[in-house]
Specification:
This protein is an all-alpha fold. The protein has two domains: 187 residues, Growth Hormone, Chain: A (Up-down Bundle), CATH 1.20.1250.20; 197 residues, MFS general substrate transporter like domains (Growth Hormone, Chain: A, Up-down Bundle). 78% of the residues lie in helices and 1% in strands. It contains 18 helices and two strands. Strands 1-2 form a two-stranded antiparallel ribbon. The radius of gyration is 22 Å and the shape is globular. The two termini are 24 Å apart. The C terminus is likely disordered. Keywords: Membrane, Transmembrane, Transmembrane helix, Transport.
């Protein structure tokens, strides 16, 4: 009986993905291309900025500064992109956001000197402001347009599983490709993605014609800021006046505050403490990715009808706390591998979060709600490096007040404990009362 339920849940999730093939294929290629650069970037930036050193405080601080700048601007840009996707369609916004990753990596293909690494950081910062989080949020809104509410959790989990599978493939390429070819291959794959979307992706929204032909050029210029302000206020009202969305905004904020702080310094911490290089980084990332494929594509679709998104969310948050403690207190090179194993469970935070938000949001406000909460998360990207970068650098130095090189990671786990407490008191609901009459778009819901 259990085997039958497992097969049905798996096949049902797979069947729901078929109408989204032309979305998921370029997204998968994009994620592979970005992931294959992650493990080698640490070596490239360290070699360029601190030649001959295994620890590079300059790189840690620049990464922290980059994350802070991205966090500042994402607070505005993410909700704006979500509103535009609700009003003008998903496809043009996906094309725009997915194309921005091409330019920073093109610089590293050209040269990897100190000057080019600094230029990379500038372009990558701009790219992250536009694309980081927005690609997935707009894709989630696309899914909500074509998939019914009862089936979204399984589909979101499948898409997250594809993200994990992409990371595994990217890490495999990084593990076995010579370092000098990694960025060149990545650029080719990044260019393929928007080209494929342009020709094959079908718009998921039926947009009503705009009635502004009689307006003059000046009137249009004046109206644009007013329309953006009204749309931003509407997005804020949708989240603030919904207990579920308001609670999820807080849960997401504190979780991202801890996890983004850890991710910004983790590879540099492992390189300084245990001498890890791109091979060990790739092994850790592949280990998490392979397990994540199983948990997101098989485990969540089976468990969700039985226990619901809230139980899955709380369990995943608990696993993220264990993940942080083991990394922060790692006493031997094998401990990071044990810690990474908890990533198999904590990756369920994202699909559970997207499902709760989507089910509590009206069909015409998916982009607004998802990206507004993602914008609130970006505040954490602003705050976490302010503490994590100097704290990590301090405890990795010889001037540390006591011996605990991962103390900053242990501190970051406090934020995830707060997130778990908030998730435990959350009462998810389904709220379709916010539908806007006369909306300019109509989702193409799939009733199959």
């Amino acid at each position: 009986m259990l085997q039958r339920c497992t097969n049905m849940a798996w096949l049902r999730g797979f069947r729901e993905l078929r109408p989204m093939l032309h979305l998921l294929l370029p997204l998968t290629i994009h994620w592979i291309a970005e992931e294959m650069t992650v493990s080698v970037l640490v070596d490239v930036t360290t070699s360029a900025l601190c030649p001959g050193d295994s620890t590079c405080s300059k790189a840690i601080y620049i990464n922290g500064l980059q994350q802070t700048i991205v966090g500042v601007f994402k607070m505005v840009v993410l909700p704006l992109l979500g509103q535009l996707s609700d009003e003008h369609g998903r496809k043009p916004l996906l094309l725009f956001t997915i194309s921005t990753s091409i330019f920073p990596f093109a610089l590293l293909v050209w040269r990897q000197s100190e000057e080019f690494v600094y230029a990379y950081y500038v372009l990558r910062t701009i790219s992250n402001i536009i694309s980081q989080g927005s690609i997935f949020c707009i894709s989630v809104a696309y899914v909500a347009d074509v998939v019914n509410e009862s089936k979204r959790a399984a589909v979101f989990s499948w898409i997250s599983g594809l993200l994990s599978a992409s990371h595994v493939l990217g890490d495999l390429l990084a593990r076995f490709l010579p370092e000098k070819y990694i960025f060149a291959v990545s650029i080719v794959l990044l260019i393929v993605c928007p080209v494929y979307m342009k020709f094959f992706l079908v718009e998921s929204m039926i947009l009503a014609p705009k009635n502004d032909r009689e307006s003059g050029c000046w009137a249009k210029i004046v109206n644009v800021p007013q329309q953006r302000f009204k749309s931003m206020r509407r997005a804020a009202e949708i989240v603030i006046f919904s207990p579920t969305l308001r609670g999820m905004a807080l849960v997401s904020f504190f979780y991202e505050l801890g996890m983004s702080g850890i991710s910004s310094v983790l590879l540099y911490y492992l390189k300084a403490v245990f001498g890890f290089n791109k091979n060990q980084f790739s092994e850790l990332l592949m280990m998490v990715g392979i397990g994540s494929i199983f948990s997101q594509m098989l485990l969540l679709p089976i468990l969700n009808p039985l226990v619901g998104e809230k139980v899955i969310l709380c369990s995943a948050l608990l696993a993220s706390i264990a993940y942080a403690w083991l990394y922060g207190l790692a006493w031997a090179p094998w401990v990071p591998y044990l810690s990474a194993s908890f990533g198999i469970i904590y990756v369920l935070v994202k699909p559970a979060t997207y499902a709760i938000i989507s089910n509590a949001t009206s069909s015409t406000n998916q982009g607004k709600a998802q990206t507004f909460i993602a914008g609130a998360q970006s505040i954490s990207d602003l705050l976490s490096p302010i503490a994590m970068s100097p704290l990590t650098s301090w405890f990795l130095s010889s001037n540390a007040p006591f011996e605990c090189k991962g103390f900053s990671i242990v501190c970051a786990s406090i934020c995830m404990i707060i997130s778990l407490c908030l998730a435990c008191i959350l009462k998810p609901d389904s709220n379709w009362s916010n539908d806007i009459e006369g909306s300019t778009e109509t989702p193409l819901l799939n009733d199959n």
